[in-house]
Amino acid sequence: MSDKGHDHDDGGSRKRPAGLLKNEKLVWDVLAASRDPLKAYEILDRLKERGVRAPMTVYRALDGLEAKGHIHKLDGLNAFVVCNHEGPHVVQTFLVCESCSTVKELQVVAVEADIAPAVRAAAFDMHTARLEIKGHCRECAAAMAAA
Ligand SMILES: [Zn+2]
Ligand SMILES: [Zn+2]
Q1: Where are the domains of the chain?
Q2: Ligand 2 centroid vs 125 CA: distance in angstroms?
Q3: What is the pLDDT of residues 33-88, one digit of tens each?
Q4: What share of the chain is helix, strand, coil (3-state, %, to 5)?
Q5: What SS3 class is residue 100?
Q6: How many A from CA of 135 to the centre of ligand 1?
Q7: Around ion ligand 1, which residues have CB less than 5 A away?
Q8: Ligand nearest to the CA of residue 72, numbered in listed order
Q9: By the 8 A CB rule, do 94 and 106 touch?
């Protein structure tokens, strides 16, 4: 497993996964087009002109997309991002910039390799493990160094 999973990192040209319901497609498109994580009401805002008006519609689509592993919820920000991995994965690792609030998803195999056996040893049925690493992104760190 190489760690070259970020070569399609441009954010704008992600391919929409197959098998989505109509509203899931709308919500996925909004998230995939956004550079930053979006809260449910921000997604609803962007879908109003496309005829989506009920918050429940957005919540249901978010639930569906999350269950299928196509998006992740960031608890700390209460916002959602599109998954940049090939398939669903239970261990999710994010770099969260505290200055510009961009979020980048990492694939850290070591985290998964360490967490899964420990969880199994505790006889716990794990659904997700989410790690939000807070700090400053490259751009913000550079801007601060220059200031
Ligand atoms: Zn992911
Ligand atoms: Zn930043």
Answers
A1: 22-146
A2: 35
A3: 998 899 999 999 999 999 999 999 999 999 999 999 999 999 888 999 999 888 78
A4: 40, 20, 40
A5: coil
A6: 20
A7: 83, 85
A8: 1
A9: yes
